[in-house]
Amino acid sequence: MGRADLANTSCPVSRVIERVGDPWVLMILREAFLGTRRFDDFQVQTGVSPHLLSQRLKQLCEDEILQRRAYNAHPPRYEYLLTDKGRDLWPVIIALRNWGQTWLGGETITLTHKACGARIDPVMTCPDCGTPLGARDVQADLSPEFKQERKTRREGKG
Amino acid sequence: MGRADLANTSCPVSRVIERVGDPWVLMILREAFLGTRRFDDFQVQTGVSPHLLSQRLKQLCEDEILQRRAYNAHPPRYEYLLTDKGRDLWPVIIALRNWGQTWLGGETITLTHKACGARIDPVMTCPDCGTPLGARDVQADLSPEFKQERKTRREGKG
DNA sequence: AATGCTAACTTCAGATTTTGAAGCGTGTCA
DNA sequence: TGACACGCTTCAAAATCTGAAGTTAGCATT
To answer: GO MF terms on file (chains A, B) (predicted)?
Structure first.
């Protein structure tokens, strides 16, 4: 199948994975949320090679997750900023952080809710009733197309 | 630096990325949350090559995200189940789903909160005051070690 | 006017990883 | 005896990644 084909499935999760499901992309996003904007800073803080960084930043700009902007005309200098679309990936990074701190321990990133001042670990909740949510509290139903696609794959294998 | 070194940083996010920040691992997790348990089903539904699937499943078992269990002794047959640790990655997959449905459109996975019956899109909220949270509502503070590590990297580049 | 410096990349060869197809081992069922 | 299912393993070719070095554009210093 190949990784690129993930974009063409009926699954909303795989279509996202094709775009951001890459270790370096996730590292770049982490950095962006920590406030990093410049090529060399991304490079130093993530440890990615400049070649790959260049590719990934291009991709992310094409996907409108980051935006490349000149912050200086002479000499030409650019920075990479999160777009609204990119900023909306925050829950993904936070979910990773939460899991890391729960299950891997070690150093921490402390989060403070600016509005109420509390130190928090953000939680997935039901927007309707406000209850915290886990895998077992929610039922997932696939769209007919996605269901059909899965059935076809199952049958096509033999 | 290389991807394996992500495990040895002071950043809780990169340590997680080293373990689950891979497209195929994320696809395997998606499948696991959809109820898939068997090797061949993972293979067919994710499109990963059997070689890689085998590697990734091994990794995931070592990391105790999945558990390999015999469901039949003769002939020997195995299945892969989410552990508690693995099930706790649910918010990551849901965060990806949410973003996909908001920004990429297309087919959907409908989620229903079993307890209250509502169709929902789970939301990251403040456990203290119950407010929905976005990137700008929260301040992140790094542990002293992590800060120091970043400073060292910055200085070491020249 | 030559040298050095910074930032943002690009290039390239060697190493590593991934893909895709094929095959294997164990055991059941007809 | 033969066909089939499942859970993998093997291997070579293709693709990707790493790390070091180089490039470009312009400012600043000697």
So the answer is: DNA binding
